[in-house]
Amino acid sequence: MILFIFVDGVGIRSKKENNPFFTEKLPVLRKLLFEEAEPVDAVMGIKGIPQSATGQTSIFTGLNASLINGSHKEGFPNKLLRKLLKEKSIFRYLRDNDKKFTFANGYIIDNLKILKKSRFLSATSYMTIEIGKKVRGLDKIIKGKAVYHDITNLSLIDRKDNKFLKKIEKFIPEYEAYYNKDLLEKIPLIKPSDGAHNLLEISRKNDFTLFEYFKTDMIGHKRDEDKALEVLSDLEEFLKTLLGNFNFNKNTLILVSDHGNIEDLSISGHTKNPVPLFISGYKEEIFQNISYIYDLAHKIKEYY
Q1: 107 C-beta neighbours (distance < 10 Å), count
Q2: Could you give the CA distance from residue 119 to residue 97 in angstroms, rounded to a whole number?
Q3: Which of 19, 144, 175, 242 has the highest CB neighbour number within 10 Å of its CB?
Q4: What pLDDT does residue 161 have?
Q5: Rg (CA), the chain
Q6: Over the stretch 186-235, which tens digit does the pLDDT of each residue have?
Q7: How far apart are alpha carbons 147 and 205 in whole angstroms?
């Protein structure tokens, strides 16, 4: 079994200035980044700054999506990148080879027809909807059978002080007609450690489980040191619990990012820094000679 943690917008940078990882409060993350993870190239030989749509498509397909696209593509996959994800992604490979796979993230709206209408689908969401054919809704979040993208559910509960649902309305007009308001009111606030245990339980029922954490990239763009430490502290507790309870003798844990960002708060954009690739556990010897982020998918296919 593989548990795949995708953390958006984290690069490896040894300079301490404007780098939130250099704090005594993040020993697990600091050790993972600077001692245990391998630095991997996210630029992939393409001019410019690496971006999310092409970076994530590269990770999940094993193709240099920036080269195929002709440039790095920010935000959400375009028609070409969606085609690559539909035909060449890890999810497609797992489905074709009768492996049980899942995207563990929870969704406010779980109506696939409505979700598919949106142009603003990440690579992970597009793979899940197009190939997995189902997402985990609010009911699953309440029962601990899905992990919301912020791990703790805080952004679902503290809606008055953030603009998250308004952003959803931008992506999906009239979204309020498609989610259950009663269920939303029942969402519990949980600890990052609880989110980790929920994810571990989900992973035990699948051959491949994917979880995406993208608050690192969001906060990196804002250049807010206090918020960065808050977000990374949640991730620290989450990963500490995963590492302490994961069965490395029978399963494999993978963590990777798509481009740098939060490691340099002196700028608001992405960086060209290498990204961390952490792999540990069963059959980890397969994952050798990974130089670029697109090399990873080929090793995962070999794993199965």
Answers
A1: 22
A2: 29
A3: 242
A4: 47
A5: 18
A6: 899 999 999 999 999 999 999 999 999 998 988 888 888 889 899 999 99
A7: 15
3-state secondary structure the chain: CEEEEEECCCCCCCCCCCCCCCCCCCHHHHHHHHHHCEEEECCCCCCCCCCHHHHHHHHHHCCCHHHHHCCCCCCCCCHHHHHHHHHHCHHHHHHHCCCCEEECEECCCCCHHHHHCCCCCCHHHHHHHHHHCCCECHHHHHHCCCECCCCCCHHHHCHHHCCHHHHHHHHCCCHHHHCCHHHHHCCCCCCHHHHHHHHHHHHCCCCEEEEEECHHHHHHHHCCHHHHHHHHHHHHHHHHHHHHHCCCCCCEEEEECCCECCCCCCCCCCECCCEEEEEEECCHHHCCCCCECCHHHHHHHHHC
Interacting residues of 132 by C-beta distance below 8 A, sequence separation 6+: 91, 95, 101, 102, 103
Output 163 or 92, whichever has higher pLDDT: 92
Mean of pLDDT values over 264-292:
94
Determine the pLDDT at residue 160. 47
Architecture of domain 2-51+90-303: 3-Layer(aba) Sandwich (3.40)
Residue-level pLDDT at 166? 60
Confirm if 207 and 304 have CB atoms less than 8 A apart.
Answer: yes
Q: Cα 218 to chain center, whole Å?
A: 12
What is the model's pTM? Answer: 0.92
Closest to 201 (Cα-Cα) out of 167, 241, 234, 257:
241
CA distance 227 to 224: 5
- 211-to-14, 47, 101, 115, 255 alpha-carbon distances in Å: 27, 29, 11, 19, 10
Q: Which of 223, 287, 222, 303 is nearest to 255 (CA)?
A: 287
Instruction: Compute the CA torsion angle 195, 53, 63, 269 (nearest 10 deg).
Output: -90
Residue pointed to by tokens 């906060």: 219
